Amino acid sequence: MSRSSVQCFERERLSQVLAVRRLSQMQLASMVGVSPSTVSKWRSGRQAPEGNALERLAHVVNVAPEWFTRAPSAKLSTPLFRSNLSAHAAARAMLNARLEWAQEIALMFSEFVDYPALHLPVRSYTEPEEIAPDEIESAACECRDLWRIGQAAIPDLALAIEGAGVILIREITGVAQIEGLSAWSEALGQPFIFLSADKDNGYRSRFDLAHELGHLILHRSMTRSAERDRHKQLEKQAHYFAGAFLLPAQTLANEVRIPVTLDDLLLLKRRWGVPVGALIKRLRALEILDEAAEQTLFKRRSVRWGAKSEPGDGDRLPEQPRLLRRTLDLLVEENILPLNSIPRQIGLSVRDIEMLAGLPEGYFQGAPEVVSLARLRSARGASNTQVAAKSTGVLMPFRFRQGTPSKI
Question: The HTH cro/C1-type domain covers which part of the protein (predicted)?
């Protein structure tokens, strides 16, 4: 590149990459070989980097130089984070920026395919005080009815959620305090859920996923606030939804034995895929346990197993996202996107794309092993190509957009 300034430099990209890479302006300046004030000018838009500086900048943060010249996609709605502490502000900024990158990947793929149609209950609450427990129960039941999954344990919640039009991301973040977040994409008209994979616990992960689903349904129309009591109330409601959705009232009541013991709860844990602690809370919400019995069970649980783990936590693997990987597999298999062109078109590093799209490490080094969840029913030019994923009995409509070229 020449020494002239890059006139189309997008300063918001610099803010994104600083957040994702957890770098300060001073650290980045040292890595690029410029002064901190120069980075500050780039970030404020008062100055654009020269061509050589842009090359160095892109190299140290591991993106393509031209990525800095592309306008970012529209912002997602402000996510709800499990941790609202000021000490975790940098972590929240990092995860929010990662979610924006995931949206850009999904938007690129959406030029060629239609994602599953959105099937979520619609609620328009504007204040948490409007939401009573019976309304949360109703929303959980309606969601099960919409998805036609009955009242039994859900075999694969991740697959069911993606089949309902939610785009799921799961990756290791290095932020143990924040298990997940969720937000709505106006550009796609669909929501995202981002789950942390740092704790390799399939039971906890399922509950976290149901918790974020609760936020999407119950709190979509609410303005975000840093006020502590309001935040706690929203978290409590999402927790209540997760219990009501994963553990339907009548079915669970018919299965539990009185008096409730920890050994009985371990059996229910394996059957329903829900931690013992969440089961205790759900039984209390249904008034199968009174407050004294709930406290007794939690004390016994702590004495026997400690507060952070339970027997059998390693028995269930965390459920994995499939939608973005399946989309990419199909686009490559049908010669719509050449495999080696994808990282260049997106502009992010190969590893960032692999992590955000749920791809195995090394995916772009050779032909992918195509996941046999999807097969095209008719020729690629047809407008109504559909794919069904049957693991949960939930149909996942998946169509190439009309006019999609055979190769680009």
Answer: 21-68
